[in-house]
Specification:
heterodimer; A: about 350 residues; mainly alpha; Ribonucleotide Reductase, subunit A; about 65% helix; B: about 500 residues; 18 helices
Chain lengths: ~350, ~500
């Protein structure tokens, strides 16, 4: 039985990132067929329009072997679901406890009606748009490890959107006279949110899956979401009697850090010296930065009037925006794909 | 949640008509879908996450704990374990393709209720992809013979049957998203996941494999929701009479594309790899496909204008032979596969004759010859029992030998200066409707024509870790396994059966 006894008892066709094959790699790698290596016949079916299952031109970035990508979080379905189930349970428990402790009654009325009831609730529409955009992006990604990261991000976004809706329903139940009814109208027509809606629609129309990830995770989240959610809502909650919304936002920030990390990894991989397309990739990514940064800033600027309604506040809108933009510039500069900078 | 109905309504009120940037039409659909229908899912993401976490804990917990300690996989019937090497990689692609299909549906379908169902299915499909890869690795670690499990996703690429599975499951996401949903949710999931994930587990368990059922039954608990997605999608489509003519064409094609691969493959898996014998595939087919899927589902849609698939009666007639013919090709061409085969015993042959009257007359001679050719010392290759490797269907990639070699419906025709084979009138018809959809790949014979079988085996990584013994074997005998030298000595050349000169 020597021919059997010699067999290594693991998948030998996957090159592990570290010394040993991780569980994440074992259950993710090559679940998408790889026409350059194992699946040499290519795709057996084309669409009526003549498209194959996957197309290298689905992104302007080029890489000789996209399958080398590894999500630094190492999440696969089981660990991802566990993480998000825990986050949702934490939210549910916090909200329940807050209701029992009467904390919602301590919310400053302007904070409740304008910042939570409108501004924060409007954000759920933006998240929903991203859910749809990332669902399509996962369909197109050129390797399983990228498709899974995009898919998890799609689910992050729908989780955020739904979580917000459920939270406001709890507020309705706990606070007499509070109604979650106005946000859609603000999303559709309020001048403060039209640049954000324009951005959402542009992202839903962005064809390139890598561009979507870059734009959202390395440009828009660090500027627009950072300003509109973290700095406006999370930071000012406690001063307005609201320690609860910040804890919900913290779960979305955990997701944001993960999404930033995998996108940074994608940028590093495509611009690494070993990649013969590194220079052109860098130029493409810079062009993405040039395209999305002004839109991200414009969307953030839309909130200026809303921001000014928050009293007391620690810093001015312009200070906050400048600081978020500087942080974002540092992220892309560290990757060697920074834009010109400034606002 | 204080008011779940209100919560469900509110989480579906996110849609708006874009006014700044028009939404591109990336996945064109011929169908008109009403903006509002029933929600097939009725779960919030929060509920879904907690439900799936619980199921994962139960399934992975069992695998990590009791089943490993009991060395369940090492004790299972080797005949059964071998075919799991072929089943898992292709099933895995089906799940992965389904994940892509649901991404397309979320993007395309302007109906928040349906999208709610698709979103959970998208993550379910990642779940199943991961579960099945996990199971393959589990068997790599614990099965008596890990070769084949260890290379499954790699070997899938060029394997005769796994390639055909690829072709069948690409229909889930390459084309009109609704046509994808018909292939995936209405046919593959509603008709075929019961035999695969429910009935097949009885067979696993009775053959000593306790691990597969723990995974498959957990998968099936998601599939019932996907069937609901299929039903809701179909209900939405038939609600607009303008959709009906196209729906019937796409539904006819979806049924045949799934049938053409799944029935021969699953039939062979079912009937030829059980050691402790119970039911036959044909019995399960009559129960799950005929009575359940057609009788209790599709036929009841007649008042809404949807008919039973055009070629259903042909399929029903030929299904009694498909698995036997597929098994004959798989066993005969064993050196091209990545699992081991266990020749039929006289008791097996009696069972076949009992379950499929007339079987012996058509297939008995092959099995007697095959048995003689298992020992390399006899110097005969079972492949030589066939006049050549079979032509492969341009559309479904299956060998053109069905339903039975003596009554094969293989047809060959020229298109744009090249000869193409089709396994059936249905596949030929699909080609005639849209030939360009099936001409985007390099064929097996274009890649490997003229290869000596030994070189094919080496190039496709079909050797064991010792570098000389084949992964595939025609018998389970571990004392005298076939080596590359045995194959080389046979001087078997891969010839293109369509070549005329």
């Amino acid at each position: 039985m020597s021919a059997v006894a010699q067999t290594p008892r693991d998948f030998t066709y996957i090159k592990p990132r570290k010394r040993r094959l991780s569980e994440y790699e074992a259950v993710s790698c090559y679940t998408q067929p790889d026409p350059n290596v194992f699946d040499r016949q290519g795709w057996y079916l084309l669409t009526p329009e003549g498209r194959a299952a996957w197309r290298p031109e689905s992104t302007r970035l080029q890489h000789p072997h996209w399958f080398d990508f590894r999500d630094p979080s190492g999440l696969w379905q089981r660990t991802y679901v566990k993480l998000q189930a825990e986050q949702e349970r934490a939210i549910e428990r916090t909200v329940d406890d807050a209701a029992l402790a009467g904390i919602f009654g301590e919310f400053d009325p302007l904070w409740l009606n304008e910042i939570i009831g409108v501004h924060y609730r409007v954000w759920s529409f933006f998240e929903y748009a991203l859910f749809r955009a990332f669902s399509r992006a996962q369909r197109e990604a050129l390797a399983d490890t990228l498709g899974n990261a995009l898919c998890f991000e799609a689910v992050d976004r729908i989780r955020h959107a739904q979580s917000t809706v459920l939270y406001l329903m709890e507020l309705e139940a706990a606070i007499e006279g509070f109604k979650d009814h106005a946000a859609k109208e603000h999303w559709l027509n309020d001048a403060s949110y039209q640049p954000l809606r324009r951005l959402a629609e542009a992202l839903m129309a962005a064809e390139d899956w890598a561009e979507l990830a870059f734009a959202v995770n390395l440009v828009i989240d660090p500027i627009t979401t950072e300003l509109g959610v973290s700095r406006m809502v999370r930071r000012h909650g406690p001063q307005h009697g609201d320690p609860i919304t910040p804890t919900i936002i913290l779960t979305t920030e955990r997701d944001r850090r993960r999404n930033q990390a995998w996108t940074e990894e994608m940028v590093r991989m495509t611009t690494a010296a070993a990649n013969p397309h590194a220079d052109s990739n860098r130029a493409v990514i810079r062009s993405w930065c040039d395209r999305w940064r002004p839109e991200a800033i414009a969307a953030a600027r839309g909130f200026a009037a809303v921001f000014d309604r928050i009293v007391p506040r620690t810093r001015s809108f312009d200070q906050e925006l400048a600081s978020a933009c500087a942080d974002q510039a540092a992220i892309v500069s560290a990757l060697g794909v920074g834009a010109v900078g400034g606002q | 949640m204080r008011n779940p109905i209100e919560a469900h309504n509110r989480v579906k009120d996110f849609d708006w008509e874009p006014s700044y940037v028009a939404k591109p039409n990336w996945y064109p659909t011929k169908y008109k879908i009403p903006a509002k229908t029933k929600d097939p899912f009725r779960h919030l993401v929060r509920d879904y996450l907690s439900m799936e976490e619980e199921k994962d804990n139960r399934q992975y917990g069992a695998m990590e704990d009791a089943l490993s300690r009991g060395q369940a996989s090492a004790k299972a019937e080797p005949r059964w374990m071998e075919i799991m090497k072929a089943v898992l990689p292709i099933l895995n692609f089906g799940e992965y393709a389904a994940m892509k299909s649901t991404g397309q549906l979320i993007e395309t379908i302007e109906n928040a209720e349906l999208r709610q169902g698709y979103l959970a299915q998208m993550l379910d499909e990642v779940r199943h992809t991961n579960q099945e890869a996990y199971l393959m690795r589990y068997f790599t670690k614990h099965a008596a013979d890990p070769e084949g499990f260890a290379q499954g996703l790699k070997a899938r690429g060029t394997n005769l049957f796994n390639r055909a599975g690829r072709a069948a499951f690409e229909t889930f996401f390459v084309g009109d998203p609704i046509e994808g949903a018909l292939n995936l949710q209405v046919v593959a999931e509603t008709a075929y996941t019961n035999p695969i994930f429910v009935a097949l587990t009885e067979l696993s368990a009775s053959n000593g494999d306790q691990v597969t059922p723990s995974v498959f039954l957990s998968i099936q608990s998601d599939e019932s929701r996907h069937m609901a997605n299929g039903y809701s999608t179909l209900a939405a489509v038939v609600s607009n009479p303008d959709n009906l003519p196209q729906l019937q064409i796409d539904f006819d094609r979806a049924f045949w594309r799934q049938h053409a691969f799944i029935d021969p493959f699953l039939g062979a898996v079912w009937d030829y790899f059980q050691a402790n014998r119970s039911s036959s595939y044909i019995e399960k087919w009559r129960e799950w496909i005929d009575a359940d899927w057609v009788g209790s589902y599709i036929e009841r849609l007649a008042p809404f204008g949807l008919k039973v698939p055009r070629d259903y009666s042909v399929a029903s007639e030929r299904v009694q032979w498909l698995g036997h013919t597929a098994a004959m090709v798989a066993f005969g061409a064993w050196p091209l596969q990545f699992w081991r085969f266990d020749p039929l015993t006289p008791a097996d042959m009696d069972w076949f004759e009992r379950k499929y009257p007339g079987w012996h007359g058509y297939y008995g001679k092959f099995w007697e010859e095959y048995g003689r050719r298992c020992d390399p010392r006899n110097g005969e290759l079972s492949l030589a029992l066939f006049p050549s490797l079979p032509p492969l269907c341009r559309v479904c990639q299956m060998p053109c030998v069905f339903p039975r070699p003596d009554i094969s419906t293989c047809r060959i025709k020229e298109h744009a200066g090249k000869r193409h084979a089709f396994c059936s009138p249905a596949c030929e018809r699909f080609f005639d409707q849209e030939p360009h959809r099936y001409l985007g790949y390099t064929s097996f014979y274009e890649l490997f024509e003229g290869y000596d079988l030994a070189d094919y085996i080496i190039e496709n990584g079909l050797l064991r870790a010792d570098g000389k013994t084949l992964i595939a074997q025609p018998w389970l005998n571990l004392e005298r396994m076939w080596t590359i030298d045995d194959i080389r000595a046979m001087r078997y050349e891969i010839r293109n059966p369509l070549r005329t000169e």
